[in-house]
Design a protein that fits this description.
The protein is an alpha+beta fold. The protein is built from seven helices and 14 strands. The chain binds uridine-5'-diphosphate (UDP).
Length: 259
C-alpha cells in the first residue's frame, strides 16, 4: 500500500492512483460521519460490506445500460474504477418522505410521495452541501444542460431499477444519493455514474417491520449498524447464510497481517 500514491482521503473512502493511467483504486474505510461530519465514528466491517454491495449494484446497473466508473473489485476493501472528474453535485432521489425533506416541509416520515423527487445539493462541506436548483447549476457552470439532462435521466432509471431490486428482497428504497463524473475521451466527455451506492448513502427500510437498514442507525444512535448492512448484503444474495462472521474475521486477519 505504501508504494501507491494517495490522491484523496474522504470521509468513508481513500482514493489511490490506479495501476494504469485513467484508473483509480477506491478503498472503503470503516469510518462513518453524519451531520456534516459533526458526528464521527467507526463501524467495524462497514467498508467490506459497502465495497461488496456497491460492486453488486454498479454491476447490475451496467447490465441495464447505465455507464459506471466500476471496473472490478480488487479485494475485500478495494475496487478499481475509472478516473473521472466528479460533477460537484449530490443527486438525491426520493420515493418516500424522510430526513431533510420531512424537516424542510414539516412532512411525516414514511409518507409515500405521489411522484419521485430529484433534488440537487452543491457538494461543499464548508457550506453544508446546500440545496440548489438547475438555475444555480447552470449560472455557476457546475454542469451543462446536456449533462444535467443525462444525469436526471440516469437517476430515474437507476431509481426504477433499484426500487424493484430492493422490493424483491423485502426492502423499501426510501431515498438515496448519487454522484456522477465526466469521463474524458480526448476533448469529449460523457457522464457516467461514479462514487458508490451503499447503505451509507441510501435509506433502506425493511418492508415488514420498517426497521432502518442504513446509516440512520448510526445517525440516530440506534446501534446494530454492521448487522443491518450485513442483512442488506445477505438479502441481495452476496453472503451465504451464516458466512458473515467468516467474511469479517478474514478481514481482521488481513488487517492484522498489515496488508
Ligand atoms: N445523503 C448522502 N450524503 C449526504 C447527504 C445525504 O449520502 O451528504 C443521502 C442520505 O443517506 C439519504 C439521502 O441522501 O439517503 C437524503 O438525505 P437527506 O437530504 O434526507 O439528508 P439527511 O437527513 O441525511 O441530512
Amino acid at each position: 500500500m505504501s508504494r501507491r500514491r494517495q490522491i484523496y482521503e474522504g470521509k468513508a473512502k481513500i482514493l489511490y492512483e490506479g495501476p494504469e493511467p485513467g484508473t483509480i483504486i477506491q478503498y472503503f474505510k470503516d469510518d462513518a460521519t453524519a451531520f456534516n461530519a459533526q458526528k464521527k465514528g467507526t463501524i467495524s466491517g462497514k467498508g467490506v460490506l459497502n465495497n461488496r454491495i456497491s460492486e453488486h449494484l454498479f454491476t447490475m446497473l451496467a447490465t441495464i445500460g447505465i455507464p459506471t466508473h466500476f471496473i472490478r473489485r480488487l479485494n475485500m476493501r478495494e475496487q478499481l474504477v475509472r478516473q473521472v472528474e466528479i460533477v460537484p453535485i449530490e443527486v438525491v432521489v426520493r420515493n418516500v418522505v424522510a430526513g431533510s425533506l420531512a424537516k424542510r416541509f414539516g412532512l411525516e416520515d414514511g409518507t409515500a410521495l405521489p411522484r419521485t423527487i430529484i433534488e440537487y445539493y452543491y457538494k461543499d462541506d464548508a457550506l453544508g452541501d446546500p440545496l440548489i436548483t438547475d438555475e444555480h447549476i447552470s449560472a455557476f457552470g457546475w454542469a451543462s444542460q446536456d449533462e444535467m439532462h443525462d444525469i436526471a435521466d440516469m437517476a430515474i432509471r437507476i431509481n426504477d431499477f433499484m426500487a424493484g431490486l430492493f422490493a424483491g428482497v423485502g426492502i423499501r428504497l426510501v431515498d438515496f444519493k448519487l454522484e456522477f463524473g465526466r469521463l474524458f475521451d480526448n476533448e469529449f466527455s460523457r457522464i457516467i455514474l461514479a462514487d458508490e451506492i451503499s447503505p451509507d448513502g441510501c435509506r433502506l427500510w425493511d418492508m415488514k417491520t420498517n426497521d432502518k437498514m442504513d446509516k440512520d442507525r448510526f445517525r440516530l444512535d440506534l446501534g446494530g449498524e454492521v448487522e443491518a448492512y450485513t442483512e442488506v448484503a445477505r438479502r441481495l444474495g452476496l453472503l451465504p447464510d451464516g458466512a458473515v462472521s467468516t467474511v469479517l474475521d478474514l478481514d481482521e486477519h488481513r488487517k492484522a497481517r498489515g496488508k
